[in-house]
Amino acid sequence: MDAAPQECVPRRPVDRRPVRWREWTPLALLGGALLVGAVLWLTGRRGPADGVWAAATLGALVPAVGAVLRQWWRRRFGVDVIAVLALAGALLVGEYLAGAVIAVMVATGRALEAYARGRATRDLRALLARAPRQARRRTPDGGIEVVPLDRVAVGDDLLVGPGDVVPVDGVLAAAATLDESVVTGESQLVGRAAGEQVSSGVVNAGAAVGLRATRDATGSTYAQIVRLAREATAHRAPTVRLADRYAAAFVPFTLLLAAVAGVWSGEFVRAVAVLVVATPCPLLLATPIAIVSGLSRVARRGVLVRDGGSLELLGRARTLLVDKTGTLTEGRPRAAETVVAPGGDGDEVLRLAASVEQLSPHVLAVALVRQARERRLRLTTPTEVTEEPGRGVSGRVDGRPVRVGQFPGGLPDWAEQARERAELAGWSTVWVSDDHGPLGAVLLEDPVRPDARRTVRRLREAGFSRLLLLTGDRPRTAEQVARLVGVDEALARCSPQEKVDRVRQESRRGVTVMVGDGVNDAPALAAAHVGVAMGARGATASADVADAVITVDRLDRLADAVEIARYARRIAVQSAAVGMGLAVLAMLVAAVGRLPPVAGAFLQEGIDVLVILNALRALRGGLRRRDVPPATRALLDRYAGQHPGVRAVLARVRDTADLVATRPTAEGCLPAVRDTHRRLTDEVLPHTDAEERQLYPALAGPLGGDEATATMSREHVEIHRLVDAIGGHLARADGRLRPDQVPDLLASLYGLEAVLRLHLAREEEDYLALDPDPPAPGR
């Protein structure tokens, strides 16, 4: 297909930050003046040397006075006044060399601050720099035009060239290979099939591909991320304001000590020496550098925090309130079981339901179709399809009338039992029926995220002492999820107003974080000290009011953000405290006459460099996540990708067990057992054997030894034993199952289903969650 010249649309933008020479020019000039004065002094021309140093001191004093006056005009009292007094005092007592050194020190501090802030915000700047500004749009006559991004409308057919940034959210017209690292944190290339939704901001790493826009530029995913990033760079952190509050005590102490030293000794130069070493660059520079470094790091982890204030609050929060659906759970239903009428076929019931639901965008319909495809069932295009909102879909499949959704009439005994089972488990029930009554039911679960329990543990380790689950779901379901993930309390059937009330109640006790993903969570997010939105699926309303947005569909990134926030805050306080402590010690030494102004100026310069370098430590460290070698991550990806197939066999095991329990003498019972055993030996056992040989040895390093996988290996042995037991019963069966075989066969089938379900859950929670970049669909 033809494409416009590649230079029309920006490729992957590079962070080309212009060199800000104005930030370094004062330092270069003042440093040059200090050196020129030193040369003059060493060659015996001390008068000209003092003149050069005095000029340098005056050159730093004038802008410093202007900065202090601007602060006073804004009714802010900061520690800059000490620098002004030190420079002025050096001029008054004739300590021109000390004044020049102080001038260089102040300029160095400002230059280092500019460098460190630029280094800390590099990732945020890169995010802003790569924002798409143009798009290729197909014209009615079949051509391609390059248009500004704000002219792209929903429904436009676009062309995304090789290396281009996807301009707006849309649906792919063909398969594509994408680099989604900026939006989702996924480091490897991802394959997406035709018809899949893709987010703006990802990069086309393959051939040119068509895209139908589903959102305009302002409503697309990347535009929201860019907006949050701009806000994150535009706000000051409370820690910086805290530094100004410290100045209320530090400045009077400094002035008092300088006055006492001068009056007590009768030497004004001692007062100047105290002011020189009291210049509070550590307080002014270290705290904002550490906080902005934390903002940059959480952005790299896929969490966009609006400002330093929110990061600082996140770093000292102790209470977490979290929504259930879409936050602790996947938010995407998954078929757990298929229950059929006596004599029915579970695969056929699921095939009929999925065939009718193929044209529906409803979340339950998507789950049915996905389950049918995982089971490799042949779907038929339905006819005469009608949908009644809230009630279901009906149509014809292969000429047979089929209805999927609610069942309006009374239920037979087997159906009542299925409904009760679903209620006890907290599952949803989708009935499949025809003109004669229900054919079966598909029981749908909203599975807990594999990383939820691990995330809760990490949050407790990070300092959260109180974790609550808020949900509008039923109490039984809420309690089950709360028990599974390990939160302290579950509050069910919560309306949006009740969520807000509970958030406000907890906020009166201390700093509170609320996490949610839906429109109904937006008021609670706004009421919390820090609202965190799960924004990977376009939860616009909640993201708009949240203080932080998790842009990748993983809950464990919340734990990453909390650990980074606590670490950045600790580094900020540490840097300020150490810098101020060293400055106070130097002030005391200067007050007793043991530290002249010139030596004090050089000493203070060293303290400034020390605390700034320490503050930059916030760019690394603080995460408790174990490092996983690339080869091990590849294995984790491979076996995680095989789990959907194993779960399909697991559902088949349950269906077969139910058939043996209800109709062991039926004609299709023994063939069903044989087919299930074949799939177990052909699909499940090779998977467990390969894990035992390859994956578990590779995990010994990240998990701290072979003992970490010992219990999982024992479960592999039990899975093998139960599959062999089923095979043994099949070998002894002569055309049909004997009555004496049924109890033990049922025990093997149901036992295998329980062990295998638990085994998969534990693997996903304990092992596959180690992978910081989980496999995406199609990878």
Task: Give the topology.
Layout: H1 21-42, H2 46-73, H3 80-92, H4 96-120, H5 122-129, E1 134-138, E2 144-148, E3 157-160, E4 170-172, E5 176-179, H6 181-184, E6 190-192, E7 197-198, E8 203-204, E9 209-213, H7 221-234, H8 238-265, H9 268-277, H10 281-300, E10 303-305, H11 308-314, E11 319-323, H12 324-328, E12 334-340, H13 346-357, H14 363-374, E13 383-388, E14 392-397, E15 400-405, H15 413-425, E16 428-434, E17 437-445, H16 452-462, E18 466-470, H17 475-485, E19 489-491, H18 496-507, E20 512-516, H19 522-527, E21 530-534, H20 540-545, E22 548-550, H21 556-591, H22 597-615, H23 630-662, H24 669-703, H25 710-732, H26 742-767
Parallel strand pairs: 11-18, 11-20, 18-19, 20-21, 21-22
Antiparallel strand pairs: 1-2, 1-3, 3-9, 4-7, 4-9, 5-6, 5-8, 10-22, 12-17, 13-14, 14-15, 15-16, 16-17
Helix pairs in contact: 1-2, 1-4, 2-3, 2-4, 3-4, 3-9, 4-10, 4-22, 5-7, 8-9, 8-10, 8-21, 9-21, 9-22, 10-21, 10-22, 11-21, 13-14, 16-21, 21-22, 23-24, 23-26, 24-25, 25-26
